[in-house]
Amino acid sequence: AEAMGGARRIDDGQIQMVSNDRASGNSSWFYKADGQGNAVEWKEQYVQFDARTRPWFQAAAEAGHPVFSEIYRGVISHEPIIAAAYPIYDETGTLQAVFGADYTLSWLEVLLTKLPVGPAGQVFVTDADGRLVAASVMAETFFVQHGKIERMQAIHADNLVLRTAARALAARQEAAAAEFDLDDHHYLVNMAPFQEYGLNWRTYVVLDSGAFLGGIKQALGYTVLIFCLALLIFLALSAWTSRWITRPILRLNDASRELAAGRYRPVPDDDRQDELGQLSRSFNRTARQLTDLV
Questions:
Q1: Residues 19-55: pLDDT tens digits?
Q2: Is 72 exposed, middle or buried (0-12, 13-18, 19+ CB in 10 A)?
Q3: At what angle do helices 209-260 and 275-293 cross, to 10 degrees?
Q4: What residues form DSSP beta bridges with 124?
Q5: 43 vs 20: CA distance, rounded Å
Q6: pTM above 0.70, yes or no
Q7: Cβ neighbours of residue 269 closer than 8 Å, sequence gap 6 or more
Q8: Among 192, 186, 193, residue whose Cα is nearest residue 207
């Protein structure tokens, strides 16, 4: 028997069950669910809905393995949606069912707006053809034409920074980076491909170098200042240490000259407890003995 079952979460957070089979006349019936997941109250229906015609079902059936669908318009929400689909086969390799989970692109946009890229930074995602999937700075990345969702080309986007960043790397398919100047701001843009389960997307991160590098430059300035202060302290300590070591030697030299001239002048550094103090005491003792003999 051909049938479809599932669940959805509506805007107020309520979980609803959905059933589509011969009993419902191949229409999707939505029910309010209780805490155990049982359908308890009929809410609405979507007439003549065949899941096998939907992009998520067809993508999984064609791929034969878990895959993401192309972006399409939801039949109820009318929002851009991408679905993760998983085909189920029996022992003979015959397709029995497809599990699907829908993700609205508005959810991805909310996620992008929460990324810490600074007030002038932004993040956006395109497909391999350069069409916008989601962006942190644009309210709408698509328009509806003849009942179908048409996504905007990033290089033609209304946002000037986004448009310039996309054009800077439009010809690149592999990971790349670029820089550009706009309205007295210097921007850095990095693009990285994302290729998983049938997706072929490009993620762009745009940063205002002034805001992004401002903290780094400030920290570098503090580092240079600390280094200069440390250097000054080191030079001052070196000068003081040099004088502390050389002064007793110079005094010993002067006292030796005086003693050679027949004049005894004690060296005042005999109270030191290091080798220079010991040398000073020995000199004073020897000088007194020589003076007494004379």
A1: 887 777 777 888 888 877 777 787 887 777 778 888 8
A2: middle
A3: 20
A4: 135, 204
A5: 14
A6: no
A7: 247, 248, 251, 252, 276, 277, 280
A8: 186
Residue pair 177/95 in contact by the 8 Å Cβ criterion: no
For residues 69-87, give the mean pLDDT.
84
Three-state DSSP state, 125: strand
Secondary structure (DSSP) of 160-225: HHHHHHHHHTTT--SSEEEEEEETTEEEEEEEEEE--TT--EEEEEEEEHHHHHHHHHHHHHHHHH
**CA distances (Å), 109 to each of 104, 139, 153, 156, 174, in order?**
9, 9, 16, 19, 23
Q: Strand 122-127 relative to strand 80-89: parallel, antiparallel, unpaired?
A: unpaired
Q: Which amino acid is at 37?
A: G
**Residue 54 has what DSSP assignment?**
S
Helices (H) and strands (E) in the chain, counts: 5, 15
CB 205 within 8 A of CB 125: no
Give dist(CA 249, CA 275) in Å, integer. 11
